[in-house]
Amino acid sequence: MPTILDKIVASRKKTLLNEKADCSREKMILPFSKAILERKFIFEIKKKSPGAGFIKDIDPEKQALIYQNSGCAAISVLTEPEFFGGSLSDLKKVSETVSVPILCKDFIVSEKQIENAYKCGADAVLLIAAVLSREELKNLSDYAKKFGLEILFEIHSLEEFEKIEFLNPSIVGVNSRNLKTMKIDLNRCGEILSRLPRGFVKIAESGIKSRKDAVKLEKAGANGFLIGTSVVKAENPEKFIKELIYG
């Protein structure tokens, strides 16, 4: 039986066929990894997910300003349309609204998505080890570097790290969520973080709901945190972010 991840990737390949980037980049690329080391927290723009279902019909520009004004390091923007309710339009709007680095978060399977992300204002792109072969990871990361984009390589296991290690990654995200089952395990995330070598920025992704969660993962080795559903669902995002950052 196809997993949720299989369905998302299959859908993305179809929707990509008619996708056009109505964008023309004007701004310079901002340093994504440097921002993470300085301010740690990446907050996300998304309206739904396979795990949470419909989350909230947010205004991307207003939400992005809340994140920036609350002291985020960077903003992650979902551009996958069917399962996450994202779009290149959202990416463009956020890029034109804020002055912090932006991650294009998508299930990237083609060079077209990377070029579109660049045109619409992304400073970094996500490449998921569970989705791509070693050859695809190399080809797509090389292509992203041609545009000057940084790459967040996402893993869910040490075996997946072995799959990307030969690329000498500068940023690695450890996802607490198993993309095949959508189940979250912060303990597993912490264990993987603690066993990764030094030499690159480590980001803990998914399932972080409190400062306690962030502190636990930081002790395991995380340099930064990517938080989506919890901050979008928050009735008072500013208060939620303040508690995350300062306790």
**How large is the radius of gyration?**
16 Å
CATH topology group: TIM Barrel
How many separate domains?
A: 1
Strand content: 15-25%
**CATH class group:** Alpha Beta
Strand numbers in spatial order across the main sheet: 1-4-5-6-7-8-9-10
Helix content: 40-55%
Helix/strand class = alpha/beta
Q: Considering the protein shown, what is the CATH homologous superfamily?
A: Aldolase class I
Quickly count the helices.
11
Question: What does this protein look like?
Answer:
This protein is of the alpha/beta class and 247 residues long. It has a single domain (4-16, 31-246), classed as Aldolase class I (TIM Barrel). It is built from eleven helices and ten strands. Strands 1-4-5-6-7-8-9-10 form an eight-stranded parallel barrel, surrounded by eight helices. Strands 2-3 form a two-stranded antiparallel ribbon. Helix 3 (60-69) crosses helix 4 (88-97) and helix 8 runs parallel beside helix 9. The radius of gyration is 16 Å and the shape is globular. The chain starts with a helix and ends with a helix.
